[in-house]
Design a protein that fits this description.
The complex is a heterodimer of chains A (153) and B (190). Chain A has 153 residues and is of the alpha+beta class. Chain A contains two helices and twelve strands. The longest helix of chain A is centred in the first third of the chain and has 23 residues. The two termini of chain A are 22 Å apart. Chain B is 32% helix and 24% strand. Chain B has four helices and nine strands. The chains are: A alpha+beta (153), B alpha+beta (190).
Chain lengths: 153, 190
């Protein structure tokens, strides 16, 4: 029953998102990345609407990325940082800015559940404190390289 | 019923300490990678293959291959094709040499290999001159290269042109230093 409700909710949100898109398009923030890989159930939530993730789809700060039971999702951000998720995962991209010319370098995200495979891009080379992922158990500062994190249920 | 009990037993056997939230370093990027945990980032993880429980004050430990596989196989499999970087060093003359031509061709190929390529062309300068002026110089360099890529028939979902000016050096130098290696245009295909 819960599943059915979820499905209906999603179906309804999709219709709503399409409906509202023309009005919202003007004040949408600049894309900071895009979806590069989708396996099974993977979703992007923005402004309260959740839609299935599609390869090529733009990522903006504030979005929530999530995967279902058999889902996987891969995202590439502007500085070349890669975020890849296993099943049952959820992350909010709280803040992202890659503008070395104005000394603005930050990737802030919250991993609420699941697994994240993060490959740090140019951002970390320029400032080892630029990338941080918050979890219910505390903050993970990623200084560079490839880092795997798991938030246990 | 027996099957269910066995599954439950197997699941609980995999539990224990491993059910805590943890982080592991899969690749230290030649010593430049790592993780910092705790309020002031005092707990450091710097060795490839090691992990650390996120909460508390625990030390780093080796993560077994079995554990890594069980927890992260799917997240590793979901990894998209990694971004590719190309660096074009600017010759003193404005004419492109054959190496530069080849590099631009490789950019076109890399973009063609992807379903939805996003290409970012980034101009860089050395630290000689004013910072604001260098940002403009970097942007002009990037625009010129983006134009060449367009002329060659680059097909991309998005072509971005940016400048990092003198704030993203390839070779670290003090301010007001001429360094030809820092005068370059980077192309990121992702």
């Amino acid at each position: 029953m819960t599943c059915f409700n979820n499905y209906m909710l999603r179906a309804f949100s999709m219709v709503a998102a399409v409906w509202i898109a023309p009005a919202a398009a003007e004040n949408l923030p600049e894309p900071v990345g895009h979806v590069a890989r989708v396996e099974g159930a993977a979703y992007i939530s923005s402004r309260g609407y959740t839609n299935p993730a599609k390869v090529g789809q733009a990522i903006v700060p504030g979005v929530a990325l999530s995967t279902g039971a058999e889902g996987g999702l891969g995202v590439i951000l502007g500085d070349g940082s890669v975020l890849a998720f296993g099943p049952h995962s959820e992350l909010t991209l709280d803040d992202y800015r890659f503008a070395p010319a104005s000394d603005e370098l930050r990737l802030r995200a919250t991993l609420n559940r699941g697994t994240l495979n993060l490959i740090a891009g140019d951002m970390a080379r320029l400032d080892p404190q630029a990338i941080a992922v918050d979890t219910p158990d505390g903050r993970i500062g990623v200084r560079g390289g490839q880092v795997l994190m798991k938030v246990a249920p | 019923m027996l099957m269910q009990t066995m599954v439950l037993l197997a699941m609980s056997a995999m539990g224990g300490c491993a059910q805590q939230s943890y982080v592991m370093l899969a690749d230290d990027n030649g010593g430049r990678g790592g993780v910092a945990l705790g309020e002031d980032g005092q707990r450091r993880l710097e060795v490839t293959g090691q992990g650390m429980v996120i909460a508390g004050t625990g030390q780093a430990y080796a993560v077994s291959e079995m554990r890594r596989k069980a927890d992260f196989d799917r997240a590793l499999a979901a990894q998209p094709a990694l971004p590719e970087r190309f660096t074009l060093h600017l010759a003193s003359s404005s004419a492109l040499d054959s190496a530069a031509e080849q590099l631009l061709d490789s950019v076109l190929l890399a973009a063609r290999r992807r379903d939805y390529p996003v290409v970012t062309v980034i101009g860089h300068t050395d630290t000689l001159g004013h910072r604001a002026a260098n940002e403009q110089v970097g942007l002009r360099r990037a625009q010129a290269v983006a134009e060449l890529l367009r002329a060659k028939g680059l097909e991309a979902m998005e072509l971005r042109v940016e400048s990092h000016g003198e704030r993203n050096l390839l070779v670290a130098t003090p301010d007001a230093t001429a360094e030809p290696r820092n005068r370059r245009v980077e192309i990121l295909v992702r």
